[in-house]
Amino acid sequence: MNLKHIMLVLAALTTGLTAGVFFGYQVSIIPAFTALSNTAYIDAMQRINNAIQNPAFLVTFMSPAIFLPVATYLRRKTSFSLPFTFLFVATCLYIVGTFGVTMAANVPLNDALAAFSFQTATPEQIATARTAFQDPWNFWHLIRTVASVGSFLLIIIASLSASDVRSVPSR
Prior knowledge:
With 171 residues, the chain is mainly α.
């Protein structure tokens, strides 16, 4: 296994893990949270936003922004190849649609919610805070989920279409 393969494996692994976290949240947590009261929703989101800030998630989430460009660069040739093209699009999709959206949209919304104290707020203020957070956050989360899953899919396609991948004849 050479550096080109190692970078591709690491890019696929970390992108897939990130896509899995976002997809799982999209199809389970978001629907479940619609039934929560405003106070319970804000409390739960604040707790999740605190819990997700841990080394395992942060390294996994940030790694594709390093591994994908390196894997893409290592696949370049004098003319554009199919694997390079798929990896280039996967890189752009992850950096803009997953990493960029998270940093530009979801994190600021998380920070604003973290500053809100539901313990001292009126029910109307709590309802307003939920409305200001929930719909925009869910929209941007869907965007980053689609981007991370799309990026992961493109990495798989690039891996399968790589010219240096040899098919093993069936026996």
